[in-house]
Amino acid sequence: MKKDIFKKSTCLFVILIFLFSSCKNSEKKHLKDRLTQRKSETEITISNYASLAAPITYDVVIKNPNPEDDWIESRLEKLDREKLINIIFDAVLNEKVTAMDYLTDNPMTVKEIRELEEDEEFDRSRVAKIQFIEDWYFDKESFTMKKIVHSVMLGYEVYDWDGNVRGHKAAFKVNLKTGD
Description:
The chain contains four helices and five strands; from the N terminus they run H-E-H-H-E-H-E-E-E. 39% of the residues lie in helices and 30% in strands. The chain is α+β, with helices and mostly antiparallel strands. The protein starts with a helix and ends in a 5-residue tail after the last strand. The protein has a five-stranded antiparallel beta sheet with strand order 1-3-4-5-2, covered by helices on one side. The chain folds into two domains: 43 residues; 130 residues, no CATH class.
């Protein structure tokens, strides 16, 4: 009897391990399929698309200045802001991409980025806005829209004497590879 229970328990345990590992593999396959689909979507020619904005520049709030504002909180709920900022900084500091001065559009050195990080006014946790420069295309037939992101610029909070957010200051811009 005890042997039977042990066999059944062992069998159930093995089945559960198999199910959990196959779910993880399925999730990885799904993510890989989505990324492959996105890649092939971006390779699609835009000849069927009408240009709506080439380029368009706009800001996106990525840090809620007022945690009591439920609407902004809900919009940012799925954003991993810290991860996004760290990816950009790490790419710049490891010289995978070049930071550009937001005023002159001249390349910045790694030393200049390190100096920015040492500035008492700056902290990565203060990065609260991203400015995108994109081209927008729309296909009336399929009712789909394509966006090509050319660059992102990080903006960090600047405070007044009372500790309130006075505005945002540009840190630097990073040009993205667009495939063209």
